[in-house]
Amino acid sequence: MRKTINIATTAEDHHIAKLTALAIGLHMLEAVFPSPLPGVKPGIANIVTLYVLYEYGFATAAWVSLLRVFASSLLLGHFLSPTFVLSLSGAIFSLCALFFTQYLPKKYFSAISLSIIAAFAHIAGQLIVVRIWLIPQTGVVYLVPVFALAALVFGVVNGMITKKLIRNNH
Amino acid sequence: MRLFLLYIFFCLLTSCSKPEPLYNTQSYVFGTLVDISIYGESDSQAQEISNQIIREFQDLHNRLHAWRPSELNAINHAFAQGDTPVSIKSDLSAMIQDATRLSVQSNGAFNPAIGGLIEEWGFHHDEFAPKKVDENKLASLVKANPQMSDIVLENGSVFSKNPAVQLDLGGYAKGYALDIALVELQKLGVKNALVNIGGNIIALGKHGDKPWRVGIQHPRKPNAIAALDLESGWAIGTSGDYQRYFKLDGKRYCHIIDPATGYPVQGVQAVTVLIPPQNNAGTLSDVDSKPIFIAKPENRAQAAKNMGVENYLVIESENKISISPSMAKRIIWLDKDAEKHAFASQP
Amino acid sequence: MPKNTHLQVNPSLQNKKPLIGDWLVIAVSIVAVIVLFQQFWSFAPASQLKIRQGSTVVGIYDLSQTRELHIKGPIGESIIVINNGQARFKQSPCPNQYCVHQGWLSHAGQVAICLPNQVSLQLLDAKNTYDSLNY
């Protein structure tokens, strides 16, 4: 006879699991495709984080985001490697940014604003880690404007996609 | 809204690329690069002014050339023949008097009378090759003790009491030309200009609302080691072992020769001096680095003091850099390694 | 399905176009990016190479290419290479070869000069770090 351990799961758990799986999929997809500039990635997994923030609230978004970082790094074999630390610091910083920006008046600020701000927070978190831990030389500062530009562009694009997704759902 | 943003964006872009009234020209005089920047004049006017200054430089160069037929060359010939006086133009006479005064002030470390030694080392050619010198000849040239004070100037003529005196104004003329250029620029009504003759620079006015900023070449790397703001009337000059030199059996022989030994100075890569505004700031920027360059390490501070130089920088090697306290306040290090090794000496 | 009510978006405000606050965020971000470029790229890798022969500017070349240039001077032909943001004298007819020994130039403001052939290379950036070089 087979013994199964039953863990009580709620419908919300299932939702989180599905969305996290989607985020992991997108994260992996990005990891597989080489980026033209090392370190510059569109961060499409963040679309899921933003979507979850709008549909389920901040706590769920934080779960999805952090689970995605841990699970993806395990799957890619990056766990506890520099890539993982960069990913994690970026995720934590953008979650912090989202925690505050979720209170911006919805009348004036849509997902686009949140997406841009989160993208900037993301690179800020990553650069701080790079600067103090990985490459303490000055060389990396040359890349700061490039990263910022990428954050702006992808922030806008991801924000617009998120906005469309939320709308279509209603 | 979008139009407004686009407008702001373009304003920002154009504010970055707005052309400024800066004219810059380069030409080759004195066997080196002459670089003139003029700020605040129309391009055509600035061009005319710089052409005039370059013509004057060319003229001065032709008169002072050490190894091609020139006024100076003729005088050197006469010196070698004996003590028969030959005629000399008044401005050249004044130059020799001034150089003599500076030579005495430097206790003979700055000595434009050692043209014979420079010739023997092979630096009297546009293109020079590594050369094995004749040690006996060097010794006799040093022993002959050519000094500026051997030159006698009277009634528009000149002769030398010592036939070994051979004038080489290579360490004087470029700086002198800077002073001439400054006077000329002011006469022509120019308010802001920067003149660079083979690395010696003098500033007039400002670059827009900021002072002129000059870089100081790293003696061993292809970039600037530091930068500083050159206020109006200030001049900067460097003696370095990297400008004219040859390598023989792995050893570097530079064009700066110690008159006391007859050999090129070893063990120092560059000496930079910064000269405050005065009538002959350009000349001093050229001359004053030499005695410091030639002095033994322990005597450098004294050599600077003798010449009245407060602001100077000595680079002995990549990790041995000393700088006078007043110069340390002005300098902006660009090479971070150099900054770490720079050490402010006592005044 | 538990939904966070305070995040609920009023459908009437849903529009494909970004909202006024979004434009504000975008504008601030653009300014931030421009400022960052100005701040960090003032000493940054150079973008252009200015070549002079005698008193004339031979040309200004973009550094983001691979190219070989032959410049005729009074004593022969200097060969200059541009390669991925760097430039150098590759060959020179001058006897001392100082210019060739200077090696690669990659930062704005760097200069290599071949006096005998009267050819000079200068790396440029939108904002030069100094007006002239003391050497």
How would you characterize this protein structure?
The complex is a heterotrimer of chains A (170), B (347) and C (135). By secondary structure, chain A is mainly α. In chain A, 72% of the residues lie in helices and 0% in strands. Chain A has a single domain (11-33, 41-169), classed as Arp2/3 complex 21 kDa subunit ARPC3 (Orthogonal Bundle), CATH 1.10.1760. Chain A has helices spanning 11-32, 45-56, 58-76, 82-101, 111-134, 144-169. Chain B is an alpha+beta fold and 347 residues long. Chain B has 12 helices and 17 strands. Chain B has a 9-stranded mixed sheet. A 3-stranded antiparallel sheet of chain B has the order 3-5-4. In chain B, helix 2 (43-64) packs antiparallel against helix 7 and helix 7 runs antiparallel to helix 8. The radius of gyration of chain B is 22 Å and the shape is globular. The N and C termini of chain B lie far apart (62 Å). With 135 residues, chain C is an alpha+beta fold. Chain C has helices spanning 20-40, 98-101; strands spanning 48-53, 56-62, 66-73, 76-83, 86-91, 111-114, 119-124, 132-134. In chain C, the strands form 2 sheets. A 4-stranded antiparallel sheet of chain C has the order 2-1-7-6, with no helix packed on it. In chain C, strand 1 (48-53) and strand 2 form a beta hairpin. The longest helix of chain C has 21 residues, at 20-40. Classes of the chains: A mainly alpha (170), B alpha+beta (347), C alpha+beta (135). At the B-C interface, helix 1, strand 1, strand 2, strand 8 and strand 10 of B face helix 1, strand 6 and strand 8 of C.
In short:
Chain B has 347 residues and is an alpha+beta fold. Chain B contains twelve helices and 17 strands. The N and C termini of chain B lie far apart (62 Å).
List keywords for this structure.
heterotrimer; B: 347 residues; alpha+beta; 9-stranded mixed β-sheet; 3-stranded antiparallel β-sheet; 12 helices; 25% strand; disordered N terminus; C: 135 residues; mini-chromosome maintenance (MCM) complex, domain 2; 8 strands; 19% helix
Largest sheet of chain A: none
Number of domains of chain A: 1
- Helix/strand structural class of chain B: alpha+beta
For the termini of chain B, the CA-CA separation is 62 Å
Q: Summarize the helix and strand pattern of chain A as letters.
A: HHHHHH
Order of helices and strands of chain B: HEEHHEHHHEEHEEEEEEEEHHHEEHEHE
- Overall body shape of chain A: globular
Give unreliable regions of chain A as ranges.
none
General shape of chain B? globular
In the predicted model, the low-confidence regions of chain B spanning at least 5 consecutive residues are 1-18
Rg over CA atoms of chain B: 22 Å
Radius of gyration of chain A: 17 Å
Assembly type of the shown chains? heterotrimer
Of all chain pairs, the largest interface belongs to: B-C, 48 and 37 residues
